[in-house]
Amino acid sequence: LRRRNVFPTRQAKQHEANPLPAFPTTTIGSFPQTKEIRLARAKFTKGEIDAATYHDFIKKEIAFCVKEQEELKIDVLVHGEAERNDMVAYFGERLEGYIFSENGWIASKPMKGMLTGPVTCLQWSFVRDDIPRSVVCTQLALAIRDEVVDLEKAGIVHIQVDEPAIREGLPLRSVDFDFYLQWAVDAFLLSTTGVNDTTIIHTHMCYSDFQDIFQAIVRMDADVLTIENSKSDMRILSAFSTHGYNAEIGPGVFDIHSPRVPSTQEMKERADAMLKYIPSRNLWINPDCGLKTRGWKEVRESLTNMVAVAEALRAASA
User: Fold this and answer.
1) 128-187: per-residue pLDDT in tens?
2) Do 140 and 190 form a contact (C-beta atoms < 8 A)?
3) For position 47, what pLDDT does the model report?
4) 3-state class of 3 per DSSP?
5) Which of 22, 195, 221, 310 could crosslink 199 through cysteines, CB 3.0-4.6 Å?
6) Which tens digit of pLDDT belongs to each residue from 85-140?
7) What gap in Å lies between CA 58 and CA 84, rounded to an integer?
8) DSSP state at residue 257
9) At 148, phi and psi to the nearest 5?
10) What is the pLDDT of residue 100?
11) All residues at 6 or more sequence positions from 152 whose CB lies less than 8 Å from its CB, including other chains
12) What is the torsional sign of CA 243, 247, 253, 257?
């Protein structure tokens, strides 16, 4: 359940082996699920097109998404998740033990491998009740660990294991919190600790109050944590500063649930405020969450402004 070394040691190795500019930019993982993608998936599900046709379509969508990010000058790219119907169902369909109701890309920037964490797979599924949930979660973690190690072997140095549901899994009674958080965090660690120091483990958590699970987040020992921040007025970052958090962190600089495109100045002011709580070498610039529900026009405009913020921060710190 432990990485080979503590974060400061890993961070030094990561920055040497996989250098990035100051204030690196990335996104959370998903890009717009257009009507064309949804239509192709529906046709494939109904048997109206064959697997080869569908997979060729998805590869072209991924290539388009990667090209867009390169043109936007994002530092750490994602493939956009065009092939995924849902972040849990996509992986469940590929694991023995899950049942469902019926009815390599090349880029000039590093790519993140995107996985859904064991706790979220557990929370967003109907789970058998003849064995403890903690045991089911551990079984999921072992399967995900295999995938994490395979991604590393394939040359992926940024691997994101999302756990948006870790807080929602808290028991109703606070007296049960510690036991749940022990096995939940252990499952995340089991998923992610099989890699070398130079591999950068990311995780993402959606809209949450982190106060009552802060120590659990620290124990997850991720190299990069991305969180919602645009609606919190820096309350979350204040908690991270007060309690002490020494890993890298990407608090969202804009709200993806709103169609409004914030200006570069607005995002810059938010990033400047973050630097009061986060050392500059640990700050990532990214949206609050995935971009799945947004349209390409607003995505392009928002990310253009976001990259401009990172460039301004680099110029100011040079």
Assistant:
1) 999 999 999 999 999 999 999 999 999 999 999 999 999 889 999 989 999 999 999 999
2) no
3) 95
4) coil
5) 195
6) 777 878 888 888 877 655 455 577 999 999 999 999 999 999 999 999 999 999 99
7) 10
8) T
9) -60, -45
10) 65
11) 159, 194, 195, 196, 199
12) negative
Rounded Cα distance between 206 and 216, Å, is: 15
Which tokens go with 3?
A: 């990485």
> What's the whole-number average pLDDT of the chain?
92
pLDDT at 158: 97
Residue 318 CB-half CA count within 13 A: 8
Contacts of 180 (CB under 8 A, 6+ apart): 169, 170, 171
Beta bridge partner(s), residue 285: 25
Backbone angles phi, psi at 75, to 5 degrees: -80, -45
For β-strands 200-205 and 224-227, DSSP reports them as: parallel
Q: Where are the alpha helices (DSSP H) in the chain?
A: 7-17, 35-45, 51-72, 89-92, 118-123, 133-153, 177-192, 214-220, 235-243, 264-274, 296-317
* Catalytic center residues: 257
The two tokens of residue 268 are 């810059």
> In whole angstroms, what is the distance from residue 76 CA to residue 24 CA?
7
User: Looking at residue 213, what is its pLDDT?
Assistant: 87
CA neighbor of 79 nearest in space, from 8, 29, 116: 29
Pair 66, 79: CB distance under 8 Å:
yes
Residue 155, burial from CB neighbour count under 10 angstroms (0-12, 13-18, 19+) = exposed
